[in-house]
Specification:
mainly alpha
């Protein structure tokens, strides 16, 4: 169980890494649809301006 020993040796680092990964994933999942909507709106505005 070398992996278990490593986990016990580096609890804080792994906790910070896991928490940061979870935060990044949640932010991406929450903001991606909003960014897509904003992108669609910007594309619509550009197409209207071109037309």
């Amino acid at each position: 169980m070398l992996l278990h020993d490593r986990l016990q040796r580096l609890p804080m680092v792994l906790r910070t890494l896991v928490l940061s990964a979870i935060v990044v994933l949640t932010v991406v999942y929450v903001l991606m649809p909003r960014l897509q909507v904003a992108r669609v709106r910007l594309l619509a505005r550009v197409s209207r301006r071109r037309n």
